[in-house]
Structures are given as structure tokens and as C-alpha cells.
Amino acid sequence: MENGSDLLEWLGRDTSIRVFSYLEDPADLVRATAVSRSWRQFVIANGLSKSLCTKLCPEVSYFSGIKEITPPGMVQLDESNSTTEWRNHERDHKIYTYINSFLVSTEGATSCISHCIGASSTDHFPQESIENTLEPREEVDWNQSHWSSVGEVDPAVPESLMYLLNYDLAFVDEIMIRPSQEFFLNDDYIYSSKFVRFKLGHSKLPITTAIFNLQQSHQIADENYVWTYISPQYPMEQENVLQSFKLPRPVLCIGAVVKVELLGRVVKHDFDDLFYICICHVQVRGRTLLPLLAADFSETVHGHGGGVLLKYNPMVWGRTRIGG
């Protein structure tokens, strides 16, 4: 521009925001903040990191606000309204820049299931319970190496398995499932489902009561949960291998609950003429946002789709190097 004038000033605020709205890569927004002090201030003041994050990861729109953890004994500074507002803008920019960094990387993904919540049905409980799916194992004792549904006459009857993750706020990249194989009367039976679908979210009940008795299958009903993400359906192969189902993008699981829906039955057992689904192992691979960020459900209006607070501790943040 002539006379060294700022492009953003020349375009004006509304047009500049519209131009930035076309960015798809969080790294491009970080680069924009490095152009000049005025560009950085423009990005921060207009919440462009949050806007991009919401576009790439719609789950973040579920956060109703940000809760800052104040260490005991810390004295609050007497700031002007404008200073407080700018400090909050900077805080939000750092937080959403950090979240954005997870959207362009899958490094550090680990198995993150903590507990079983329950199954829609279980044949021969507890020998064939959902707990058998937590660890990969050799099928030496077939009755105790997998979860099995009850038999059904109708192959369209679905089943579901529900798990609690280690973290109440984590990006999930991939879910892996291994159907079970039975060797019976010289025939190989692989009890996969036809399709699989995943739901991520949180319980409407206090988290301390979310780990249910495995016989209380009614506790995994959808009405007891708020699902912040529902995946497309994936076909499941009728193979006795650990099958990988990669989500279309890293998905932010808010609330640590993952529901695996098994849709459609393939194998009818000759012994009783009923259709079954049997699963050996389930693995959810994800990356936690702890210790920098966590979810606070204390102000959630349970049962009414209330929002969740995104909380962070500035003392922890100060000890961690974050870009942006």
C-alpha cells in the first residue's frame, strides 16, 4: 500500500473480518498475528481464533463461557474495564489458538478408555460382559474373551457399548473395534455388526454416578446424555482383526463419554437360530487438553442442554510454552 498504510485499515473492519473468515489452516492465522502489532491486535480483538476454531471444530460452540481458576490467596488487580476486556481477549486468543493446534496434528494420541459404563444387553452376564473388551487378549477361553449381545430374531436390532474416557476434555481421532470369532462345529463365526456409529458427549447425571452397574442397561439410554458429536455410519468388515474407524476430523469429546452403536447383525447362530453381535476389543485413541484446559459441568443445566464452562488455570498456562 502507498505511504505504508495498513491493509486492514484500508479494507475496513467488516471486510477484513470477511477476508480472514476464508482461512482454513490455523497456522495461517498464527502467521497473520506475526505480520505487525496492528494485525495481531485486530485478530485478538475480533476473536478470530475462536471463530476459526468454531468453524473447524463445532463442538467448541457448546462452551457457554470461560472460567478462570484463581489460586488461593491471589490478589485480584484493580483494573479498568478496558484493560480487563483486553486481557480477556488475549486469554481467549491463547486458549483457542491452543485448541486449534490439536486440529492440525494427531501426535500423541493414546488409548484413553478409563471405565465401562454399560452395554445395551449382555448374554451370560458377567462372563461375557463389556469389561472383556477393555484389554486385547488371545481368545483362549472364548466365553471370557469378549462381550456378547443377547440373541435376536430380527437382525436389524441394534446394540451399543458405552465407555468413560480418562479425561473430561479430549480430542478423539480414531476408534478401533475387533469383532469376535467363534470356532463351532468346524465353522468360523465372526460376529461383527454391519455398521458402526459413534456418539461423544457427557452424562446429564453427576459424573460420580455415571459408572453404572453393568446389569443396568437402561442407564445407557440416549435421554441420559447430551451428545455433542454424532459420527457418520461406517461399514464393519466381517474379519477377526482390530478395525480402525478414523473420524473425519479430530473431534472434541466434551464430557468423556463415548457410545459405540453396533447397527445390524450378520451371523445367525445355528444352535438357537438367533442373531448375535460379539466384540473382543474396543479402543478409543485421543489426546487430552489437560493440564491447561478442562471442562466444568457445575453450572450445566442437566437435562436441558445447558452449556459447559471451559476452565483454565493461568498459573499452569504460565509454565507452558504456547504459540500465538
Provide a quick synopsis of the model.
The protein has 324 residues and is an alpha+beta fold. It contains seven helices and 18 strands.
Number of helical stretches of at least 4 residues = 7
The helix-strand sequence is: HHHHHEHEEEEEEEEEEEEEEEEEH
Low-confidence stretches: 207-212, 301-305
Q: How many individual β-strands?
A: 18
* Shape assignment: elongated
In round numbers, the mean pLDDT is 85
Largest sheet: 6 strands, antiparallel
Structural class: alpha+beta
What is the radius of gyration?
24 Å
Helix content: 10-25%
Query: Percent of residues in beta strands?
Result: 25-35%
**Amino- and carboxy-terminal Cα gap:** 26 Å
Write a structural description.
It is a single chain. 21% of the residues lie in helices and 34% in strands. The strands form five sheets. Strands 3, 5, 9, 10, 11 and 13 form a six-stranded antiparallel beta sheet that branches. A hairpin with a 4-residue loop joins β14 and β15. α5 runs parallel beside α6. It starts with 6 loop residues before the first helix and ends in a 6-residue tail after the last helix. About 3% of the residues have low confidence. The protein has 324 residues and is an alpha+beta fold.
